[in-house]
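ok so i was messing around last nite and threw this chain in just to see what happens. nothing serious, just curious
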Amino acid sequence: MQEIKLKATDGSGTFSAFIARPKPSADTAGVVIVIQEIFGVNDSLRATCAELAAMGFIAIAPDLFWRQEPGVNITDKSEAEWKKAFALMNGFNQDKGIEDLQVTLVAARSLQGANGIVATLGYCLGGRLAVMMATRSDADVNISYYGVGLDSLVPEFNNIAAPLIIHVAEEDEFSSPEVVEKLLDGVEENEFVDVFIYPSVQHAFARVGGVHFDARAATIANGRTAEILAEILG
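result:
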């Protein structure tokens, strides 16, 4: 996996972004910005990047926790790691994160071998940021897996001008039924947004190797993701 450095727009420094490339099979490829969970650009996220590359896309995952601690790579397997993950999330400035993702988006359009068409794909915290990218950037398609606090973003939904898929876990412990209801009400008449609810699964049902991984729900959700990526990114 290749690593590049990108410069923050606020002049505070540079951050790393990790790139997985497909085997040479086409002149150009679409790019997927893979947005991290609260565990950083960890082994699970890099595996997702590798899977996207195997599908023929260029995948790029920026290190969004760099202002607190560069290179975070933890799992959901221990109490200590969860404690650190929540501390990082609580210390994370989401608006700065969006600035970094916007920098990544500009860079992604001009990567070697890129066709200029870019998606965002985020999980957990990254799922929220993918929705924010739908409202605050010109990404060509955005995909959110079990994003947190999406109800608070509903007032921004009028800004959405590109397809957005939102994957929701029915029994998400970080998202109450009231939050989901407000989200559904907020997207009811928005032609760009599709929300899919996966019954009887918990948060992070698509995290391979995670404690709540559900193979059936993950396969269905990933199939919908692959379909729209193939349609829009080429």
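not much to say yet. The radius of gyration is 16 Å.
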